[in-house]
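Q: Here's a chain of 104 amino acids. Please give me its 3D structure as tokens.
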Amino acid sequence: MDTVAKVATVGGWVWAIHLIMDGLTSIVQANPDAIHALSKVVESMHLNSILGWVGAVMGGGAWLYERKGKKRAYKVNSELRKQIESGDPHRSTSGLDENGHTPK
């Protein structure tokens, strides 16, 4: 199922790029001066800074997603450790809380 979703996503992106390029082709063929006007519009949008912000937001989101996964793994590990160590009085834990942090 993941493969189908991935293929559909990539297909959607390819289709969107095709539509954009087809639209640009029709603009240039209809009026070559229109491409110059379009370039002025793109230049005035400061696409470079917008892409920088998009990259920063995506990077921050990926970091938060990864951190959430690590916290979940620490919690599961803590629960399993407590189950294993519950019957052994001589086996102590590392002293970390259920999230893997040092207690205050």
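Q: Can you summarize the key feature?
A: The radius of gyration is 26 Å.
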